[in-house]
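Structure (tokenized):
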């Protein structure tokens, strides 16, 4: 089968899919996709910035992967933080290859279970499902018309599932816009997602990545600061924040000044110790 990865956009898309599968607990599908990312990445031309962002993302991904319960069920306890990235990637690739048959079997079982659940929902609650999707669409329409308060009061606040559906919509739209380098659109979509769920550090992190792609490092640091304020133990956020400080030494000095003053950066720097 021909690879679906032929350029940097497709490489990032595949990697972001791996990240999404990991967050959803789809470890087997995540590993199969990540193996393809590892195999195809060396042959894909990248700018220094694209290479830096990808390596940073992979480092955070490996930490999250090693801490995931379902991953340890397959491979046992391990850490990817003590050796260089290339060695870690070769190690995990060899592990995936060694147990690929079992992993593929898990993917098939997960897909069968998911399909069974979908069929079950479709056969038992077609009307409820249609109403649920209709509510999400209605809320999205109101938000796009600038009627956030109405959408929140009348629809979103009545159901956490509806809230999640709206957030997933805007987050997915943001990811899609980033992949095709429409960064203003990505920022607009992530902004809407944050307006619905301002306490979600992952949305602030995604916004920071969009601003980083757009070359706006100050804005990226601002949103990472918000993410780390919401969750001081946010490992991916810490790693990205440190990376941005290296790229933006002016803000590193500002951060140190804020630290002395006891501002937000003091909390962030404490969390990184």
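Design, position by position:
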């Amino acid at each position: 089968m021909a690879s679906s990865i032929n350029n940097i956009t497709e490489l990032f898309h595949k990697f972001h899919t791996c990240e999404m599968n990991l967050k959803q607990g789809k470890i087997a599908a995540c590993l199969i996709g990540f193996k393809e990312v590892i195999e195809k990445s060396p042959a894909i031309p990248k700018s220094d910035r694209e290479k830096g962002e990808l390596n940073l993302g992979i480092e955070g991904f490996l930490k999250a992967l090693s801490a995931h319960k379902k991953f340890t069920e397959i491979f046992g306890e391990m850490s990817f933080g003590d050796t260089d990235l290339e060695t870690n990637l070769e190690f995990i690739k060899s592990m995936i290859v060694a147990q690929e048959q079992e992993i593929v079997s898990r993917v098939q079982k997960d897909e069968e279970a998911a399909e069974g659940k979908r069929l079950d929902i479709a056969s038992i609650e077609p009307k409820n499902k249609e109403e649920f999707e209709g509510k999400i669409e209605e809320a999205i329409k109101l938000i796009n018309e600038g009627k956030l308060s109405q959408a929140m009061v009348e629809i979103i606040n009545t159901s956490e599932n509806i809230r999640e559906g709206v957030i997933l919509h805007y987050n997915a739209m943001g990811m899609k816009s980033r992949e095709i380098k429409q960064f203003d659109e990505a920022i607009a979509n992530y902004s809407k997602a944050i307006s619905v769920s301002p306490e979600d550090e992952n949305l602030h992190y995604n916004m920071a990545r969009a601003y980083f792609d757009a070359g706006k490092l100050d804005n990226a640091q601002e949103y990472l600061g918000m993410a780390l304020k919401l969750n001081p133990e946010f490992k991916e956020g810490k790693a990205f924040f440190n990376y941005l400080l290296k790229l933006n030494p002016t803000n590193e000095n500002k951060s140190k000044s804020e630290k002395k003053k006891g501002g937000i950066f003091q909390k962030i720097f404490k969390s990184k110790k």
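Reviewer-requested clarification: The chain has 15 helices and no strands. The radius of gyration is 20 Å.
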